[in-house]
Design goal:
228 residues; alpha/beta; 39% helix; single chain; Rossmann fold; 6-stranded parallel β-sheet
Length: 228
């Protein structure tokens, strides 16, 4: 009888200890993962201010100012030159934040310099996610109006030697996660499907104007969830 009571007492003690352990684990606060810094690349005839609304949205969702880098460059220059400057900018952001990789979020022509950086300048080692928003990934004939004025615009014209080289082989190199968000009524892209990337998550977002794509909140939510 005494031995039986001892067995019951031991079983109760073991059960009590298990309950205490479970409670202590459930009470431990969850540690949120630190997000990658986001580097934004604007397009033709634009500047860093084109990202103001999305920067504010990212901040509202927990990002700090140091994790959001919208920078400006000379959009008339070759996309190759911009890609070289982007490489320097990414390394600056990594050094400033202590992060190991960034996420690239690009609009329109910004996709070309960013993709050149990934393909030709070793960018895949420093980028986790790449997001193209209304990216001119395979060119547009709309660029005819400025192709004789600006090197960047000539490179953006459908069938340019720059685009032929950029899109040869693997369009989504490395272990980077790629996404392309495109509109089915984009007045700047001819055809709209020029924005699609082979090997990427391609998302049609409906009828949104080209210049509204990178300040639309519905598109923002999808981009935020992708880079998360």
């Amino acid at each position: 009888m005494l031995r039986s009571k001892r067995r019951i007492s031991a079983a109760v003690s073991a059960l009590f200890a298990s309950l205490l352990l479970a409670l202590s684990l459930s009470a431990a606060p969850a540690q949120a993962a630190t997000p990658n810094p986001v580097v934004f690349v604007h397009g033709l005839s634009s500047s860093s201010s084109s990202w103001d609304e999305w920067v504010a949205d990212f901040k509202a969702d927990g990002y700090t100012a140091s994790q959001l880098d919208a920078w400006s460059y000379s959009w008339s220059q070759s996309n190759v030159t911009t890609a070289q400057q982007l490489a320097t900018e990414v390394k600056r952001v990594l050094a400033a934040t202590g992060a190991s990789k960034v996420d690239l979020v690009v609009h329109s022509m910004g996709a070309l310099s960013a993709r050149y950086y990934l393909k030709n300048l070793g960018g895949t080692a420093y980028v986790d996610d790449f997001v193209s928003v209304a990216g001119v990934n395979h060119g547009t004939t709309v660029a005819s109006w400025c192709s004789w004025l600006y090197t960047s615009c000539a490179e953006m014209y459908t069938g340019s030697s720059f685009l032929t080289a950029l899109n040869s082989g693997d369009e989504t190199p490395g272990s980077v996660s790629y996404a392309s968000y495109w509109s089915n009524c984009d007045e700047a892209l001819t055809p709209d499907t020029t924005a699609l990337l082979s090997g990427a998550t391609n998302v049609e977002v409906g009828c949104i104007a080209h210049t509204d794509m990178n300040n639309d909140y519905g598109v923002y939510e999808q981009v935020r969830d992708f880079v998360a």
